[in-house]
Amino acid sequence: MSQCRKRCKRQLTKVARYFYRFLMGTLSQDSVEDDFELSTVCHRPESMDKLQEQTKFTKKELQVLYRGFKNECPSGVVNEENFKNIYSQFFPQGDSSMYAHFLFEAFDTNKNGSVSFEDFVFGLSIILRGTINDRLNWAFNLYDLNKDGCITKEEMLDIMRSIYDMMGKYTYPTMQDDAPREHVESFFQKMDRNNDGVVTIEEFIESCKKDENIMQSMQLFDNVI
User: Fold this and answer.
1) pLDDT digits over 138-166, tens only?
2) By the 8 A CB rule, do 184 and 28 touch?
C-alpha cells in the first residue's frame, strides 16, 4: 500500500473514532430513558418506540445517541453555527467550516436551518446501518450541492477544497495548491462514464461499487456503535 493510501486510511480511522466519541457524548449510569422523557428542551423528539421503527437502531442505541446529542445540543436542536463549532473540535489542525456547512445541509433535510435529534438519527441510520446503495445515495446527495441530480466538477472541487482545508497543512505538509483540482479530474475520469461533464447517481453508484478503496472506507463506520 502506498504511503498516500496508508495516510488516508489513518485519517479515515481517526474520523471514525472522533465520530464515535461525539455520538457517545458523556454517557453516565443515570437512566437515559427518564432523561429522554422528562428533559425540558426547546424541541421534544419523537418517542423512542417510533424512532426505533423509523431507523435501524435499537432502543438502547437511540438512548445512547440521545444522551450524546443532548450533551452537545441542550436545546434539542442544533443550528449551523453550533454544528460548525462542534465539528471544528474534531479537526483543530485545519478549517472544517466549509465541510461542516455541506454536512449540515445534508442532515438538514427539512431545510429549516436546524438539525433536530430526529434529523440526526435518520441520517446516521443511513450512514451507519444502511445498505451500500443507501450510503452511496446519501453521499451523492452530500456532493450534489444544488440538488439537481448530478455532480459537476465545480461542486466536486468545492467539496475537495473543503476536505483539504479541514485536514490542514499539518496533515498534508507537501500538498500542492492544485491537488484538489487534480483529485476532481481523477474522480471524473473514473466516474463520468459518458464524458458529458457531470456524474449522475447511476454513474456514481456503479463506479463506487467497483472501487475497492471506497468500499473499504465505507466499512469503517460499520461498527461505530
Assistant:
1) 999 999 999 999 999 999 999 999 988 88
2) no
Report the predicted TM-score, pTM, of the whole model to 2 decimal places: 0.77
The count of other CB atoms within 10 Å of the CB of residue 111 is 8
Enter the C-alpha cell of residue 195: 464524458
How many C-beta atoms surround the C-beta of residue 212 within 10 A? 8
- What are 185's strand-pairing partners? none
Evaluate whether 136 touches 68 at the Cβ level (below 8 Å).
Answer: no
Using one digit for the tens of pLDDT, what is the confidence trace for 162-217?
988 888 765 555 566 788 899 899 999 999 999 999 999 999 999 999 988 888 87
Answer for the pair 143, 106: CB distance below 8 angstroms, yes or no: no
Please provide residue 150's backbone torsions phi and psi, each rounded to the nearest 5 degrees: -150, 155
